[in-house]
Amino acid sequence: MSTPLGEKPQTILVTGGSGFIGSALVRLLLGSTPHRVINVDKLTYSGSPLNLPGAEKNANYVFEHADICDEKRMREIVAEHKPTVIMHLAAESHVDRSISGPGAFIETNIKGTYSLLEAARGYWNELSASSKESFRFLHVSTDEVYGTLGETGEFRETTPYAPNSPYSASKAGSDHLVRAWHHTFGLPILMTNCSNNYGPHQFPEKLIPVVIMKAFRREPIPVYGQGINVRDWLFVDDHARALIQVVEKGRLGETYNVGCRNERKNIEVVRSICSTLDEISSQSGGASASEGFRHDSLITFVTDRPGHDLRYAIDPTKIENEIGWKPQKTFEEGLKETVKWYLDNTAWAEAIVKEAAGKK
After folding, report:
1. Which of 92, 143, 154, 263 is catalytic?
2. Catalytic residue (choose from 167, 198, 256, 342)
3. How far apart are CA 237 and CA 35, in angstroms?
4. How confident is the model at residue 290 (pLDDT cuts 50, 70, 90)?
5. What would the pLDDT profile of 30-58 be if each residue is shown by its tens digit?
6. What confidence tens digit (pLDDT) does each residue in 207-254 have?
7. Helix, strand, or coil here: 175?
8. Structural domain boundaries of the chain?
9. Are residues 71 and 46 in contact, defined by beta-carbon separation less than 8 angstroms?
10. From start to end of the chain, where are the E strands?
């Protein structure tokens, strides 16, 4: 059976390649493979060229400024670049934003996925038999489609869908479309559902970068409710490696849950960040250490988010056994690296927030 990737250079089309997870994937592909990367991104508030420094100078990189909802443009881009693999990461992804403005999530996550599927199907139907066999369409989704867990249990690939937010409902809808295009039309798809990502280049609205930047500035650190909600954390570079391995080794039509068994209560994550900052300040002889200042004194509990899922946890047995993927970083290693990256890149954080504000 033909395989889509390997040592021979291929063309990989990545949607949302200027976002957080997408840019990690693009950086990995450009830095450690011979493949040509076509980055299709609308550059909404969280997608930025700032996430891909130097990429435009790489001969294997092409940027297409386009909206995945524009089916005509998607057909044109796919026909022009002739990808071996489409890796679909473009999505609206922040739960709070989906509560205040759900329309954009329905448009991008459902209509956009439909447009891309149709562009891919039209292209795939015209390929030769051998090229058809090696083509792959990878759809990247979230564990939030499964709803919420109690104090025990884990999400598996067979867990029934029960989304509780406009964001997770829109991603569930896109998952169902992808599965239907495989079973109805034969499109060779793969799907992944990942746990909460963290790491460098995450837009400063998510929990970990919010806490880092607030603590760094000595501003109140907002924590929803009592911080008892549990998330399963996945370092973004480990996720990018998983996506490439699923394309290379995954069984067609299958879903693979990507997680690291890194369950933490939100308040535990916040306190870990604060203690890491205390440690860094102490080692550097900073003012915080000399003042006896503790960053966890900034923690402020705020009104909980509507419909806030209590707990997510992924069972990654399938991807471990079938694909051979395992994370390379522990949560403690990844968190320390992330904190240091944000401290070293405060100019990036300020620039990307300012850039996003200009897009409104």
Report:
1. 143
2. 167
3. 18
4. low
5. 999 999 999 999 999 889 999 999 999 99
6. 999 999 999 999 999 999 999 999 999 999 999 999 999 999 999 999
7. helix
8. 11-203+232-266+310-331
9. no
10. 11-15, 36-41, 61-65, 85-88, 136-142, 189-194, 196-198, 221-224, 230-235, 255-258, 263-265, 299-302
Give the span between the Cα atoms of 12 and 81, in whole angstroms.
Answer: 9
Can 254 be counted among the known catalytic residues? no
State the CATH class of domain 11-203+232-266+310-331: alpha beta
**Residue 287 predicted with pLDDT over 90:** no
Angle at which helices 207-216 and 346-359 pack, to 10 degrees? 120
- One-letter amino acid of 77: I
On the question of pLDDT at 1 being above 50, the answer is no
Amino acid at 249: K
- 143 noted as active-site residue: yes
pTM: 0.95
Report whether pLDDT(284) > 80.
no
Q: For the purposes of burial, counting CB atoms within 10 Å of the CB of 179, is it exposed (0-12), middle (13-18) or buried (19 or more)?
A: middle
Q: Which two tokens stand for residue 55?
A: 């990429």
The one catalytic residue among 67, 71, 92, 144:
144
Q: With contact defined as beta carbons under 8 Å apart, do 243 and 192 qualify?
A: yes
